[in-house]
Amino acid sequence: MREQDRELADATAEQRRRRHAARDVYDAIGFESMWADGICEVERGLFSQTVAFSDISYQSARKEAQEAVFSAWCQLLDGFGADSSVQLSITNTPIPAEEIGSRSFFDESDPVTGRFAAEYNRILNDKMREGISNLVRTRHLTYAVGARDVESAVPRLARIRGEVTQALQRVRCEVEPLDGPARLEAMGALIRPGRRIPTDWSLLAAHTGLRAKDLVCPGCIETKPGGSASKLRIDGTWCQALVFRSFGSELMDRCIAEIVDLPIPLSVSIHVQGMDKARAVSFVKQRLAWMDKEIIDEQRAAVKRGYDYTILPSELRYSKEEAEDLLDDLQNKNQRLFRYTGLAWAYADTEAELDERVLQITRAARSNSIELEALDYRQREGMNSILPLGNNHVDVGRFMTTAEIAVQMPFATQELNQEGGGYYGQNKESSNLVICNRKRLASPMGYVAGKPGSGKSFSVKREIENTILAYPDDQVIVFDPAGEYSSVVVPNGGTCIRLGPDSDAHLNPFDLADVEGHATASQRAFKIDAFLALSGATMAEGRQGLPEADKSIISRCVEDAYERCAAEGRVPVLADLYEGLLAQPEPEARGIALRYERYVRGATSFFSHESNVGFDARITCVDLRDLSQNMRTFGMLTALESVRNRMYANFERGVTTWLYIDEVQSLFEHPSIVSYFSKFWAEGRKFNLICTGITQNSVYMLEHEEARNMVLNSDFVLLHKQSPLDRRAWADLLGLSEREEGYIDESAKPGEGLLIAGAARVPIKDDFPRGQLYDLFNTKPDEVAELKRASGGRGAR
């Protein structure tokens, strides 16, 4: 084994000498082979693999949450043995100049929604130009192991990948292994910026004679451009590698974040090589022994000169104390010792621009007690060490403990830009677009909350428009208690169903039209839960639950209604349930029937009819404004049953159902209603339902345990300005830090707030420009009235 290790070490040393003396770009780039699955032979006997991981809201989190992330990061580092190495890379890659201001966010080809998509694209491209950086930030973790061949390396790399994935997922990072094309693209972003790297792996065929290296190699690398030994020029782009030369006495957890938060293209890489615990202790003890010898020599010299021998040079005394603390960390505090090298990489079109960017990086590092310097005559080594290959070619480094490395957190200002998503505003700190794709969330269900005038309704209408434009095959349904969403539904080709005493639209809570093929027993069970909720909505006592006797009677009568009407070849209506209740022998049944009486007789009997409307349209608004408060809850529950039926049918044909429920707090007025809605919420996730609850009365809703659980099981929450009581309720439930609370306090302007999407917590702002989309989303009474007057009283649209 030792002989094999010696052979590999000699081969590696020879490869490095050859690479250092390389006279062509092919030999200068620091890897040998790349496989399609992403495994790379960096040098003979050294293989690496890379995973990408997402950002988390570390910098704005509570102290206890930050401590948990720090602990997990320490465990991640300690998981790498002395036989493996790891490289952490954080890279800011500029969005191609040709894409800024010219991206197509939404398809404009639809004849109905095309005009709105065109305006939305123009607005978002204008806002894209406002972004401070227009950078895409990526985080990569590359780990390398020594092995005789790739077959031997595969199981070891797979084991490390599993451990790394679990460790990162514990802090709610999304982890994705990079395949061969993705790794080449990550390298190309650093050494061929602004150029597209071919990702078609079929190009690497025998008949083409091409290898993976051919796809990423630049055309020319000038090692001393303009006579400078501290820079490179790669295909005309000026580049410079910097090394972390020295550190202050104490590092802060923002030391790396403040560098990568600079609005410039750059990359920061940290190489870490673990040391065996016993060897590390022996190493430190040896250093301490040398220091003790120096101290004795100093004391002897002091005695000979007649000085006080207890007075030691400050540097020697400090080094001794530091070494003793290090030994204590290794022996008593479960710390490990690592060989550490930190590097930064900057590039620009001109030398002057590069010098300015390097100055910005140096200042940011110095403000965090990190001194950087250029790698004179070693720029190619620096370039290869920056590439996410897991191989450190730079011999400049120092020893650090687990905690000293873990405190250099890779998490900076969080951005959210998910492909295929909708627009939710601009990042309040960077002004970059906030694009969220709710379909990518583990649980896309969510809530939008805010005080009146906070921009809540505007945000919801904007998201409805996002949904209509981004997902043209999905179905959108809106429950509208205030009659304000027709302004966005109708112009987009949708229909409105108005429920009220003077309306000829009817929804039958007994209807099973969309679920006729489903098992009868399961449908009856859910229908019974629905009628228990409807019965709860008829009760004036609010929080008082239905007695068990009432539940049994209602269940029995619902079953009887279905059986009796099935024999007659029709679907039951509320009148059938009412008659069934009157026929029961229990006195409680008459009380239940009495509560239902107004829904089956007189002016408010419009729910006691067979359904004559449905949700066949792609966009449907259920208008509930003409219903009283009690009847509104009853109407919501009836409509929910119709949506549930539709949800099943949509699922069967692969269509996602989007449901928006305004004044959702009204569904938490009675235990049986809460129970039904909670079950509906949980079941909906399994059948491609994305439901959004909208409320301005958060405290009332969050008083319910079920409501809190529903929020905690939802990965999407959009909070606008909150009252002090509501803000405290959200802070306690979601663990908001003081900084995050500040985004939703009384100082928040309309449109500002905090978007929580999975592990991301992004402060948002939105100054939406006036135009036809603004008119669709606007809810300001004076401006809406002005639009109506301008249209001659026929409505603003």
Automatic annotation (TrEMBL):
InterPro entries: P-loop_NTPase, T4SS_component. Transmembrane segments: none annotated. It comes from the Bacteria. SUPFAM superfamilies: P-loop containing nucleoside triphosphate hydrolases. Signal peptide: none annotated. This is Conjugal transfer protein TraC. It comes from Olsenella porci. The lineage of its organism: Bacteria, Bacillati, Actinomycetota, Coriobacteriia, Coriobacteriales.
